Amino acid sequence: MMTYKVSYVVVGIDHPGAIVNEFEPPEIGGRIQIGKKTFEIVEIHEVMPPRGDFAFLHATVKPVAEEVQGANS
């Protein structure tokens, strides 16, 4: 089983992001919850070629629109 070590970098707000082990590869347009916030994946890049059962990915994410609007209310 492939494990994807994904570095999630948040744009648009001040958030530390996360490094998460996933068992399914992330997809552009997909969503991930980091802490209490939900983010949409906007970019994915392979950091280096897979090694054995591990793949190393970088994903850029942005807050989902409804959460941003709710925070501004």
Descriptive overview:
- The protein is mainly beta and 73 residues long.
- The chain is 11% helix and 58% strand.
- It has one helix and five strands; from the N terminus they run βββββα.
- The protein has a five-stranded mixed beta sheet with strand order 2-1-5-4-3.
- The N and C termini lie far apart (44 Å).
- The model has no long low-confidence stretch (mean pLDDT 92).
Give a nutshell description of this structure:
With 73 residues, the protein is mostly beta strands. The protein is 11% helix and 58% strand.
Number of helices: 1
Largest sheet: 5 strands, mixed
Class by alpha and beta content? mainly beta
Assign an overall shape. elongated
Residue share in helix: 10-25%
Topology at a glance:
Blueprint: E1 3-10, E2 18-22, E3 31-34, E4 37-51, E5 54-63, H1 65-72
Parallel strand pairs: 1-5
Antiparallel strand pairs: 1-2, 3-4, 4-5
